[in-house]
Every structure is written in C-alpha cells, then in structure tokens.
Automatic annotation (TrEMBL):
InterPro entries, A to Z: K_chnl_dom
Residues that span the membrane, as ranges: 28-47, 54-73, 79-102, 114-133, 189-211
Pfam families: Ion_trans_2
Official protein name in the record: Potassium channel domain-containing protein
Length: 221
C-alpha cells in the first residue's frame, strides 16, 4: 500500500504541474490528498507495535492538518512548520523501515518492497528539505530555464512540487543534469550529503540482501 501511495504521489507531481498556475488550487488539493494518503499508509504499514503506531500518528497528525491548511492559505510560516514536521515524520519512517530490513532474517518480496519504499521515502524527504531551504532562501537554487530576473520555485505541496521531487531523485542517483543547481553553501552541502547517502544506501542494501540470500541458501542445504 505504501509503495502504491508513493508511486501515485510521484506520478501526480508532473500532472499537477501540467495543470499550470491557473489550476493551482486543484493541483494543491491533489498533491495534499496523495501526500496525506502516503502519510497514513506509512503510519499503518511500518508500525509493528502499538507504541510505534502512536508515535507515527503523533508525528503525522500535525503534518496532515498543516498540509491542508497550507493548501488553502499558502503562508510561508505555515509552510515552514509543515515542512519541518514532514521531515521529522519521513525521517522516522525511513528509520523504522531500515531497522526492519536489518532485523529481517529472510529475503522475501516484503523485504524487497520495503527496501524500495525506504528509497522512495528518502527521496521525498529530501525533496521537502530542498523546498524548505528555498522557502527560507529563495536564491538557494538556480534554474537554467528561469527567465532573466526571475527565481524558479520548487515549493513542495504546490504544482511546483515536481521540481523538488525531480531534483531530489536526480541528486540521489547522481545524474546531475544541471538544469537546477544549488547556488548557496547550505544547498550545495545538502546536495552532497544526499548524493553520498543515496549511494551508501544502495551499496549497504545490496550487501544486506545478498547476505540474506546466502544465509537462506545455506539453511536449505
């Protein structure tokens, strides 16, 4: 369920952008609805105990409320609070999933789906981080296709969410097309950290899955 919710969120981002600024309220409602679905599915999918579920709901609740308030009012203060809380919740989800992966004793379809979910959630988390950085410093990113004198936007939760998500996954996979580049020191450092984190995640994950597969093969013999 979480993997489906994440996929829908990623697919909807370019659709929301295609609707354009003229349909901004509709685009923001679509993004808010799918992000809310992702939050709720994350709470119930990764929570294996009552305590974990309570922690998840406690972190996700304020994000849900602020997400919908921001969809209607779009105030910077509300957006900043929403972004910070969303980062905390998504970070919690990643930690819980990674812990599940490293305590699992078998490589199953659930393990593979969980590893994919953790990677996608990590990408969304960094998209929110970059969006927050740009809200605090609008000149922190340079857009190659932005018109002269204008500053491109990548605010998460709006029809411009696609740019934050796009930049996050391009950075994490170290593609680096160069159409969006970090212009401030903090943005550059965050991009470097994400690039290293993305490569380490894949390397460690592959090692873990191979280890589980070898362990299963030895047990069968």
């Amino acid at each position: 369920v979480l993997l489906c919710a994440l996929t829908l969120l990623l697919v909807s981002a370019p659709v929301a952008h295609a609707l354009g600024a003229g349909a901004r309220p509709v685009a923001q409602i679509v993004i808010a609805a799918l992000f809310s679905a992702m939050l709720l599915s994350a709470v119930f999918q990764v929570s294996r105990s009552r305590v974990a579920q309570i922690i998840g709901l406690t972190l996700a609740g304020p994000v849900l409320v602020l997400q919908w308030i921001n969809a209607w009012l779009e105030m910077d203060r509300i957006a900043v609070a929403n972004h910070v809380l969303a980062i905390l919740f998504l970070g919690y989800v990643v930690i819980v999933i990674v812990k599940l992966l490293f305590t699992s004793t078998r490589a199953t379809s659930d393990t593979i789906c969980a590893s994919a979910c953790a990677y996608l959630v990590l990408g969304v988390l960094w998209a929110v981080v970059y969006s927050l950085v740009q809200i605090l410093d609008p000149a922190s990113f340079a857009f190659a296709l932005a018109e002269e004198g204008q500053v491109g936007s990548m605010r998460f939760g709006t029809e411009r969410s696609v740019f934050a998500i796009y930049y996050s996954f391009v950075t994490m996979s170290t593609l680096g097309y160069g159409d969006i580049v970090p212009a401030s020191g903090s943005a550059r450092m965050l991009a470097a950290v994400q690039a290293v984190m993305g490569q380490l995640y894949i390397a460690v994950l592959v090692a873990r899955l191979v280890g589980l597969h070898i362990s299963q093969s030895a047990t069968r013999r």
